[in-house]
TrEMBL record, chain A:
EC code(s) of this entry: 7.1.1.-
Catalytic activity: a quinone + NADH + 5 H(+)(in) = a quinol + NAD(+) + 4 H(+)(out)
Lineage: Bacteria, Pseudomonadati, Bacteroidota, Cytophagia, Cytophagales
Organism: Chryseolinea serpens
Family: Belongs to the complex I subunit 6 family.
Topological relation to the membrane, as annotated: Multi-pass membrane protein
PANTHER family (UniProt xref): NADH-UBIQUINONE OXIDOREDUCTASE CHAIN 6
Pfam families: Oxidored_q3 (PF00499)
Protein name: NADH-quinone oxidoreductase subunit J
Cited function: NDH-1 shuttles electrons from NADH, via FMN and iron-sulfur (Fe-S) centers, to quinones in the respiratory chain. Couples the redox reaction to proton translocation (for every two electrons transferred, four hydrogen ions are translocated across the cytoplasmic membrane), and thus conserves the redox energy in a proton gradient.
Automatic annotation (TrEMBL), chain B:
Top-rank EC class of the record's enzyme: translocase
Name of protein: NADH-quinone oxidoreductase subunit K
Similarity comment text for this entry: Belongs to the complex I subunit 4L family.
Originating gene: nuoK
HAMAP family linked to this entry: NDH1_NuoK
GO biological process: ATP synthesis coupled electron transport
Subcellular location: Cell membrane; Membrane
Amino acid sequence: MNAPSFLFYFFEIIAAGAAGALLFVRNVFYGALLVIAVLLALAGLYILAFAEFVAVTQILVYAGGILVVIIFGIMLTTRLGGKPLVIEHTRSISATLVGLAFFGMLMYLLSRETFVAHPAKAATPTTLDTTQTLGALLMSDYVLPFETAGILLLMALIGAAVIASERKSKNV
Amino acid sequence: MNVPVHHFLYLGAFLFSVGLVVVISKRNTILVLLGLELMLNASNLNLVAFNRLHPGNLQGQMFAIFVIVVAVCEAAVGLAIVLRIYREYQTSVPDDVNELNL
């Protein structure tokens, strides 16, 4: 087993283990930390799959942005004075059944399929400058989704600020 | 690295199932949001893995980036709603909130 394969299974075990521990964790803060571990391991997997721009975006946006906001949310919605926020589980049996059934179905379907690359496409060598190509594509072929994403982000910013604002709203 | 693409997809299936169970079973709105993020990440992993089968073609990675953008919006608006509900109802248990008449 060469080094990239070893790293691949290393990251995969970290991601699967942290996600599995998330099922049993009862402290919300520990849950957020476990999700950070999953996201960082996934960033490692993206690098091994030749998607370094997605990996860096994952670290910057997810692990650096969303999870910090979520930890702020955890701290703002606990009024327990230093005690950790411990939660309970509801519907454990039905949730486990649904999860196992869904996982079994996915594994069954995936193990039946063989995914092979299109022969003509597979002959193309892997480009080493993925980031440069992605930037050029964002400004040419994907400029409409790019601008739409910008408008969506603006809408989410304004919407979040309005929803979370302090004023008593009978007429908003 | 000659890892078969199935090993990416198995991890994606596992992460999606874990996210589903977390969304159903946890009694906390923020953990439900974290489960949603896990499910979005599982789909992202599949997109990147399939893109690895087609080198020289970056549609999968592009789609993954847009999924990340949408996930950011979802997390921001979702947390704003969670904070507002906590201020009005003093609870963060989703089952306790059965009306939105603020």
